[in-house]
């Protein structure tokens, strides 16, 4: 399986998504307040899509079970249904468009923005 290397901004983004969700899986509601490692930051469009790598519409806090289920095979249809329900059809279509646009990598700016966003959650 192809893996995209994690960057510092990825770690910050993951923390933001999971904190924003209150350390709960957005699919089943299971609480991971006491087990942060059990909750993942799931990207509907993978991190290889630079244009949506740090897009809030593209990421959910999911438990290992749902991240694994929705990330592969038939589960992708469930993920798509959830995303359309969450964003609406137009929002999902816009996310799909953004995911397929070119975006230049800018780690410095991404880190600065994400640090600021995390600071607002405290």
Helix content: 40-55%
Write down how many β-strands occur, each being a DSSP E stretch of 2 or more residues. 2
Which regions contain 5 or more consecutive residues with pLDDT less than 50?
Answer: none
Separation of termini?
Answer: 36 Å
Major sheet characteristics: 2 strands, antiparallel
How large, in whole angstroms, is the Cα Rg?
14 Å
Tally of contiguous helical segments: 4
Q: Output the structural class.
A: mainly alpha
The outline comes out as globular
- What proportion of the residues form beta strands (DSSP E)? 5-15%
Helix/strand order, N-terminal first: HEEHHH
Rounded average pLDDT? 93
> Major sheet: order of its strands?
1-2
Describe the protein.
- This protein is mainly alpha-helical.
- Helix content is 49%, strand content 8%.
- The chain is built from 4 helices and 2 strands, in the order αββααα.
- It has helices at 8-20, 64-70, 75-99, 107-121; strands at 39-43, 59-63.
- Strands 1-2 form a two-stranded antiparallel sheet.
- The protein is globular.
- The N and C termini lie far apart (36 Å).
How is this structure best summarized?
The protein is mainly alpha-helical.
Chart the SSEs and their pairings.
Elements: H1 8-20, E1 39-43, E2 59-63, H2 64-70, H3 75-99, H4 107-121
Helix pairs in contact: 1-4
């Amino acid at each position: 399986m192809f893996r995209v290397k994690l960057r510092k901004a990825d770690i910050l983004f993951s923390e933001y998504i999971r904190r924003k969700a209150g350390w709960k899986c957005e699919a089943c509601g299971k609480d991971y307040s006491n087990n942060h490692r059990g909750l993942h930051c799931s990207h509907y469009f993978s991190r290889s899509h630079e244009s949506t790598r740090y897009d809030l519409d593209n990421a959910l806090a999911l438990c290992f079970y749902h991240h694994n289920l929705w990330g592969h095979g038939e589960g992708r249809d469930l993920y798509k249904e959830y995303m359309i329900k969450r964003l609406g059809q137009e929002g999902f279509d816009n996310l799909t468009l953004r995911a397929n646009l070119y975006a230049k990598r800018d780690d410095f700016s991404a880190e600065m923005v994400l640090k600021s966003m995390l600071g607002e959650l405290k």
